[in-house]
Amino acid sequence: MKVVWILIALLVVAIMGSAIGVIYSKHQTRKIFVNLQKLHKQIDELDVEWGQLQLEQSAWSSHGRIEKVARKKLQMTLPRANEILYIKQ
């Protein structure tokens, strides 16, 4: 009879331990999922920023802007037809 009570007590302890393990595992899973969602949001934000940076780069490197800067800051002009020399090899 005493052995039965010890066995029942051991089974109750094992069941409680298993239940605590399941609860802990579920809690960890939820924490990891929340972190994953934050990372997905950060990826989306970085993708938007990357697109904006690509647009900005294309605006800064457009031929019209480069020509405008060359004329204004460097005082460069297009040569006239009689100022162009052709070199043959």
TrEMBL record:
In which broad location class does this protein mainly occur, judging by the first location in its UniProt entry?
Answer: membrane
Claim: Chloroplast is one of the keywords in the record: no
Q: Which UniProt keywords apply?
A: Cell cycle, Cell division, Cell inner membrane, Cell membrane, Membrane, Transmembrane, Transmembrane helix
Name the GO terms of the biological process aspect.
FtsZ-dependent cytokinesis
Highest taxon in the source lineage: Bacteria
How this chain sits in the membrane, per its record, is:
Single-pass type II membrane protein
Q: Does Zinc-finger count among this protein's keywords?
A: no
Q: Where in the cell is it found?
A: Cell inner membrane; Cell membrane
One GO cellular component term noted in the UniProt record for this chain: plasma membrane
Q: Which InterPro entries match?
A: Cell_div_FtsL
Subunit comment? Part of a complex composed of FtsB, FtsL and FtsQ.
Q: Which family does it belong to?
A: Belongs to the FtsL family.
User: What function does this protein fulfil?
Assistant: Essential cell division protein. May link together the upstream cell division proteins, which are predominantly cytoplasmic, with the downstream cell division proteins, which are predominantly periplasmic.
Q: What is this protein called?
A: Cell division protein FtsL
Classification of source organism: Bacteria, Pseudomonadati, Pseudomonadota, Gammaproteobacteria, sulfur-oxidizing symbionts
